[in-house]
Amino acid sequence: MSPFEHGEVFVLDDGGEVDLDLGNYERFLDVTLTKDNNITTGKIYQSVLEKERKGDYLGKTVQVVPHITDAIKDWIEAVSLVPVDGEEGPADVCVIELGGTVGDIESMPFVEALRQLYFSVGQDNFCLIHVSLIPVLGVVGEQKTKPTQHSVRELRALGLIPHFLACRSAQPLLENAKQKLSQFCHVPVANILNIHDVPNIWHIPLLLQNQSAHDAILKQLDLLSVARHVDLEEWTRRAETSDNITKSVSIAMVGKYVGLTDSYLSVVKALMHACIACSLKPSIDWIAASDLEDDSAKLNPEAHAAAWKTLRGATCVLVPGGFGDRGVKGMMLAARYARENSVPYLGICLGMQISVIEFARSVLHLEKANSEEFDPQTPERVVIFMPEGSKTHMGSTMRLGSRRTLFQTPDCITAKLYNNSEYVDERHRHRYEVNPEIVGSLEEAGLKFVGRDESGKRMEILELPDHPFYIGVQFHPEFKSRPGRPSAPFLGLVLAATGQLEAYVKRQQNGSVYAIHQQ
């Protein structure tokens, strides 16, 4: 999936590559989802075609109704029985998000499947929430309900009657707008939920609680008698803490896809989690890696000068993952700048490989050191294609999902950040890796690979011991970062950038793991 079209590709524990929306659910709800929690048209059609080829339909004509719609219903019902929150037994409620817009031709089979599901499970076991935008037109500032009225009419024509309206708006929804929506959409005023703009996203659960959304939904599902008391004290503290933070830390994000920040959504969220834990706000300075390159100085000198000014003004540098050779030289320049000037550096996936190539060129004087991804014929292969990978098929041929990394020494910074663990399980998504044949030379020159896979041949974590914080990880720690539980490498980067890392490590060894103070 192109980052410019879809945003980031979120990776699950089981190796599923999914849309960033599913990542938002996992991060916000703190659950562990699987590839089966992501239903796509392609998956449904593929499963139906496979059944037809096996003869499961006994030669009957395969149609959208009932075969495709039945496959969708069966998938939903099967997934709904699998717990995702660590508890045993099936869940009480299964949340289904039907993406797109009402009326889209792509979603028609799914709408019909949900209509049939509504009919089969009964109205006490089905709650439909329609999300709609309430725009404000012109200088008059009137909240317009017509788009919602029309979308609800379209939805009702398709056989789905919404029980709730979740109305997005810039400002709180006015009472007369609610009354109009209730009258023309046949939804009680109490069931019209307003999700207006708030200072930070952690206010949203509190906003819904204040409107008694949870009680209304439980009532619709006939679950009020078994529901537990809602405890949002931690959310309240987190939201208020975020609002009251005044100090910030500047982070240079040197990437390939900075034109669409959703390409690095999980990285941004992980930085936010780490900064909040340190009573800071992240101030992310986006730098297009290609603007740092020498060619940019000739073609676009203003962009080149601005990129370098931004890089030099940041307190730390982060190079995230990516594919292809565009901007690679700029990333190497950023890695070299951070290494030579003792600026905290975190390289993720490609960012780690970049730091290895730069070190090989600058310190080992291997001028042609490169990755096979960028130069398949390079004589000095520092980064190589994985032996088990496919060079003909791109889809699902990478090293994907949760893999174990063993720390080679308990004295490294990364192990201490991971609560002095002997190993860590993190998610991967890559085709290329550090060449184990050159590791000895790199370590002799000072670059230490402190984390490896269980075979000892795959390099997972690197550190530069004489540097305040110079770390590269082959995995993607951002996918498991959570509000209130920041990812260790991101936390370490922010702590190092603000001069708190050493004190934090000492407090952690004394048993005070989360005692972080702004200095």
Automatic annotation (TrEMBL):
Keyword Nucleotide-binding: yes
GO MF: ATP binding; CTP synthase activity; identical protein binding
Pfam families documented for this protein: CTP_synth_N, GATase
Transmembrane segments: none
Catalytic reaction annotation: UTP + L-glutamine + ATP + H2O = CTP + L-glutamate + ADP + phosphate + 2 H(+)
Protein name in UniProt: CTP synthase
BP GO annotations: 'de novo' CTP biosynthetic process; pyrimidine nucleobase biosynthetic process
Pathway terms, separated by semicolons: Pyrimidine metabolism; CTP biosynthesis via de novo pathway; CTP from UDP: step 2/2
InterPro entries from the UniProt entry: Class_I_gatase-like, CTP_synthase, CTP_synthase_N, GATASE, GATase1_CTP_Synthase, P-loop_NTPase
Entry EC number(s): 6.3.4.2
Keywords: ATP-binding, Glutamine amidotransferase, Ligase, Nucleotide-binding, Pyrimidine biosynthesis
Domain CTP synthase N-terminal positions: 1-223
Residue ranges that the Swiss-Prot or TrEMBL entry lists as coiled coil: none
Lineage: Eukaryota, Viridiplantae, Streptophyta, Embryophyta, Tracheophyta
Domain annotation Glutamine amidotransferase: ranges: 260-493
Family of this protein: Belongs to the CTP synthase family.
PANTHER family noted in UniProt: CTP SYNTHASE
Function: Catalyzes the ATP-dependent amination of UTP to CTP with either L-glutamine or ammonia as the source of nitrogen.
NCBIfam families documented for this protein: PRK05380.1 (NF003792), PyrG (TIGR00337)
